[in-house]
Amino acid sequence: MSADSSATTASSATSKATSSSQRKFIKRPDDKAMKEEVEALKKEIKKLDLTNNELNAQIQKLQIDQKVMDERNKLQAELKSLISKQSSAKNERNNINDQIKSIDAQMKKKIAEIQQQTSKNNFKNVAEIDARIDSLDKAIDAGNLKLADERRYVKEMSALRKLRKDFGSIEKTQASIDQDKEKIAELKKKLSGTHNKEVQAQFEAIQKQLDEINESNKSIISKRNKIYDQRSEIKKQKDAKYDEIRKLRSDFDAKFENFKKQMEEERQKRDEEYKAQQAERKQAKLKQRAEQELADASIPAFTEEINSIHNLLSYFDPSYVKPATNKNASTTGSNGASIPSTTKNQARVIEFPEDLVVVKKEQDDFFTGTKKKGKGGKKQGGKKNFTVAPEIVVALSDLTIPFPLKEDDVPETIKTLKETLEALQQKQEEQTKINIERAKAKIAKFKEEDFEGDEDDDDDE
Length: 461
Known about the structure:
Layout: H1 3-21, H2 32-61, H3 66-118, H4 126-142, H5 147-193, H6 197-216, H7 218-298, H8 303-316, H9 327-331, E1 372-373, E2 379-380, H10 390-398, H11 410-448, H12 452-460
Antiparallel strand pairs: 1-2
Helix pairs in contact: 1-7, 2-7, 3-5, 3-6, 4-5, 7-11, 8-11
């Protein structure tokens, strides 16, 4: 882990610790006290129930003689029947009175209409109008009138005939008024029949008998009524206790609801803090990765290949001297940031088990040969066996350069290595710029994708 990464982790841990220290402690409401009060109230209710049972037992002892009770119940039933009849008669009377009031109101309205029409002239009925028309007609027929008077009489006769038509509607209204008067008379006659004096007399007689029975059992009834009152008082006390229990439970439920609300608010607050920490951590990792991508891209291109070629040249040509490199050029990117020279080739520290026995294998020198032995066991001079170390073969293969099959192929291999080295060095600066531009594009893509891919990797760590 890099220093920047460690700082980020430490900052995140500090933020979490600060958030945890500021977290509000929410105490769960204790229902123990509430339950104790409820149990105490239930015990009091049980005591009231016992008292109520005692009162019921006393009521059972204060019983009136059954024959008297039967007679009393019978009289009460008859009284209820009479009350029902009286109620029906009363409703009928009210209904008749309502009808009378309604008809009377309509009749008065019709009379007012007739009075309004007759007040405009001196005629009270059709007969008077007809008499006036006949009088005018006879005067005209006599021929003694002046022309102006005759015209005036004709005009008056025309007006009287029109008035006579209006008086025809008045006669119909009058006939309707007469019918209303007859209806009212019939209803009043019917109303007088609803007053049943016999029912009232029966009611009074039965009530008198009931009063006598109650008077004879007044002492018992008084005691029973007193006990009934005590029992009603006990019921009120029980209801009050039950109300207290409901209030205690309701108050606790309200406190518990408030507790749940505060817990939910605290949970939401923790979620928001966690999201903020995750966002901060994501931004830090994005910045770290962007810096790493840019740092890796700023390393001169083909550094690994060039170093490999230098090593191969030194291997094939022991006289080859690796040229000195500009440290600043190799460790400074295009943006001036310092780049470690071993970013991609950092040395790994390997821990071996304590009981490991290291066996050192001698390696044959390059270009070494073995002489064949003669019959006498003496070594005979001969051709050297040409061998190339496996790691050299791999290095050449990575550079796509054929490895020498014999000693005579070595100069050609050296030439190819130098040509490849020169080509890579010429292209190095251009390729480095391309790598930097690619890294910047990749960084922009990180920001666009909100660093989702790395979040998944973090979950796996």
